[in-house]
Amino acid sequence: MPPRIRIRRRRRTRIVATVGPASANPEMLARLFAAGVDVFRLNFSHGTHEDHFNSFAMIRALEEQTGRPIGILADVQGPKLRVGRFAGGRVHLQTGQAFTLDMNPTPGDSRRVNLPHQEIMDAAGIGTSLLLDDGKLRLRVVRNRGDRLECEVVTGGSLSDRKGVNVPDIVLPIPALTVKDRADLAFALAQGCDFVGLSFVQRPEDVAEAREIAAGRAWIMTKLEKPQALDNLDAILDLSDAVMVARGDLGVELPPEEVPLAQKRIVRAARARGLPVVVATQMLESMISAPAPTRAEASDVATAVFDGADAVMLSAETAAGQYPYEAVNIMDRIIARTEQDHGWRLGIDATRSAPGHSSADAIAAAAAQVAETIAAPAIVAFTESGSTALRTARARPVAPVVAITPNVATARRLALVWGVHAVVSEGTHGVAETMTRAVKTAQTEGFAQPGQELVVAAGVPFGQPGTTNMLRVVRVK
Known about the structure:
By secondary structure, the chain is α/β, with parallel strands linked by helices. The chain has helices spanning 26-35, 49-66, 118-123, 179-191, 204-214, 227-231, 233-239, 247-253, 259-273, 295-307, 316-319, 324-339, 342-350, 359-373, 387-394, 408-414, 431-444, and strands at 14-19, 39-43, 71-75, 90-93, 98-102, 112-114, 129-132, 137-144, 148-155, 157-160, 165-166, 195-198, 219-224, 242-246, 277-280, 311-314, 379-382, 401-405, 420-424, 453-459, 468-475.
């Protein structure tokens, strides 16, 4: 990947932006990348394989033009639970009335509607809550007849064809990957995606299944959007390469007052493991149709930055909104300004996780400490798989991390990671060559000036993954 245009982010927290009709053209993608996007998300809930093929091609062409690695997240849909259709297209349910969900495909009315999901019929019990249309309506099961659920309307309202159903109280015996997801996943992996966004995760087994299919070709980014996933959080994180706080469905299935606490819990747990964590959904929602965010939205982005999230994400704002460039631009500005605040650094230091017990973890933690002590302008981490850079970023160092890797796939994945500037370069074969490459790269990428000292982390023997065991300080001449 020959470098052509030098782009260096002046912030640690990364930006993920969703590609859609508003942005799926070379000119807008270039503008969004220049404004601050580090990873582009392709939402497989929408669009055809041809649409996504074209997006892959445009993003890789942009990568070639800029000489900077760009990550691509393929976000698969997951199972969608929906009611059937109504004879009149829409009904109004009154609070307190009886309403039945059944397996009968006949169009429904104000008394009943089809629910073509036997798994819900089998799992629901008396008192189970069913949320319809993103939680706008709530039903409570009063009797399960096996092939139909007799319910009471707890919160009424208008209900139309094919609206979604959420079941927050129970674990449903439904796999996270549908037939459609498997086809989408095979397509995305063949195109060379860097991350797979895994929806509807309830159990560790859901993540294990996706890992087996991906077989190391992409990082599995587990989307945490079900209360059941929070009950299995530690086991799920142990199998994940990255996580997303997917506040859309999470906000439907959890009480609103619980969502901020869940977000902080997930971010804290991911940071402790050194897993990249993305905070997503409705971050700048008003900018779908407005050129500036609300003050509350600006504060929401800043909160994720204060928590130490690796990245924040734009969804409809860049996929279908009227102001995709402005949304990325203001998000970049909010992040940069927040990270300049003295309180931000104090908070990051106060929530820094203790290093692991391996020698590689010790080297990464020491690199962060030495860099802070000598005011190094950068930590240079030589990495094959990305683990050295991940470990160093886990320490949330004051100095930025310049990750040098011979693998373009590794560089693209590191585009998501807090404080990491990845550079693709040929491998080195000795200590002297490694130090020379570190100095030259740091200077070329705009991180170091003559007379400054760099902290360098690497592994001996060179070129062998998982051997981080060397820490050096080298002066820039």
